[in-house]
Amino acid sequence: MARSQMRRGRSRSTRGLAIRSADNGTWELPRGVLELDEAPEDGVKREAWEETGVHIEVDQLTGVYKNTTRGIVALVFRCKPSGGTERTSEESTAVDWLMPEEVAERMSEVFAVRLLDALDANAPHVRSHDGKRLNQV
């Protein structure tokens, strides 16, 4: 599974791209499952465009997150927008660029930490969670 988030260029404040999921109404990162023959970076680009209308350039891996309940591992990358126009899709009912201080207000803990880690210069991070809460080390 690949997850993506983006930050605006240096001339603007750092923000993370988020969607409101059409499935459950929660704010999350654009996400999806890789195709069998797809590189993680290509999957990140595809999912970001499909869910938000934003084209991106992948910068670096910022985190690896394991859901210990479901056995799913998510990769999160820092990316830069490179074109496109923000729009909703079948998978998103809203698209927004969130400031770091807005992330915890809109997202659950397990999604908020991923976006905040992506905005952190000390990446990459490796974390695990049970689907609702981070596991303490």
TrEMBL record:
Concerning its family, UniProt says: Belongs to the Nudix hydrolase family.
Q: Which InterPro entries match?
A: Nudix_hydrolase, NUDIX_hydrolase-like_dom_sf, NUDIX_hydrolase_CS, NUDIX_hydrolase_dom
Protein's name in the database: ADP-ribose pyrophosphatase YjhB, NUDIX family
- A GO molecular-function annotation: hydrolase activity
Cited SUPFAM superfamilies: Nudix
Segments carrying the region annotation (Disordered) are 1-21
Q: Name one Pfam family in it.
A: NUDIX
Entry keywords, A to Z? Hydrolase
The annotated regions of Basic residues compositional bias extend over: 1-13
Protein species of origin:
Actinacidiphila glaucinigra
Domain called Nudix hydrolase: residue spans:
1-120
